[in-house]
Amino acid sequence: MSAGPAILLCVALLSASAEQERLRLQYDDVAARAQALIETVDYIEAGLALQGYALHPWIASARDNLVATMERASVELKNHNWNQLRRDLVRARGWIEQLERRL
Which residues constitute the domain of residue 62? Predict the structure, then answer.
C-alpha cells in the first residue's frame, strides 16, 4: 500500500473527528442556552400562576418543543448520529431565538 491513500484516510478521519468535536461543543452551547431559557420560562409561569394568570399558550408550546428537541439532540449525541444532531441543533436554535424574541 502506498503512503498516499493512507494519508488521505488519516486526513478524512481527522476531519470527521474534528467535525464531531465541533458538534459536541455546539451541543454544549445550545444545551446551556436552552436550559437557561427553559428555567426562565418556568419561573415566569410560576410567577403568573401565583397571580392567577397563565403563560401564553404559544410560549408554553415553544418551551415544550425546545425541551423535546433538546431531548432528541441528546439521544442523537449519545448514538453518534451526527447528521440528525446537526438538524436538531438548528431546530433548537430556532426555538431559542423565537422564545427570546417573545419574552
Answer: 20-102
